[in-house]
Amino acid sequence: MARILPQSKSAAVNPLKSSQPLGAAFAFLGVDGAMPLFHGSQGCTSFALVLFVRHFKETIPLQTTAMDEVATILGAADHLEEAILNLKNRTKPTLIGVCTTALVETRGEDCAGDIANIMRKHTQQLAGTEVVLANTPDFDGAIEEGWAKAVTAMIEGITRSGERARHPKKIAILPGCNLSVADIEHMRDMVESFGLKPVILPDISGSLDGTVPDRWVATTYGGTSVEDIRELGTAMRCIAIGEHMRRPAKALLGLTGVPYVLFQSLTGLQDTDRFVSLLSSISGAAVPARVRRRRAQLQDAMLDGHFHFGGKKIAIAAEPDQL
Q: What is the pTM of this model?
């Protein structure tokens, strides 16, 4: 006789949404002309691809090294080399972001050494394409750590080192994975309203905003350019949003000397006021009238809503930096 087991939990948990490789691929998708590459089995990539397509309703460039049982036992360096060369020849990406999976990490593959050998062996063939590695095992951490590792890897692998002449109006912004496409677009508009030039890494608002290209593009379409990543050291200041972005901000500081300011969140009046004050201080400009008006509208909405929500108890389940 069939036995029905009712679910005892009041919340549904989807572990696929919280994996490190998913977060790393998400970050690489915010770079123009990029191709995320999962170093693992086809199943790992298929699950991530389904989640991305289901959420964004867009064509998502995501490839795999397609490790089989032989590669799992004998080593997958050949699979990684073949995948990188095929992607270079077929899609001409400006960036290949390699994301390791639990299969590779459990086996103990020296992925960094493998990539170094591939780049040295095929220097001319891979010219014009950056290959960046993010070690992101599924069994450790979550989506925000994978995102942060990918951003750190891009900074350490692409950005020119050493202190350089600073552009007085240029600021580097490292948004957390909890910020949506609309959040980043609004943040860019606000920064530009102070006369500043933001370089956002990664910029999913440029690649996952639903834009229909006028031609077929096999890689990401829009986002931060590799050249912008290379020139991050010329920024006057770095703004990191979310605790998990402290690591890439520190990497940029150590590599180029660009000082950073960390915001735990940009949600709420207090954090937003601090963000606006910082932009005003960097630019030397007064807060624009439209920003002041939006703040007044928020205050009015809070006053209007406190009759309905004041003293109420609520439960919120979300990513740490979203809370």
A: 0.89
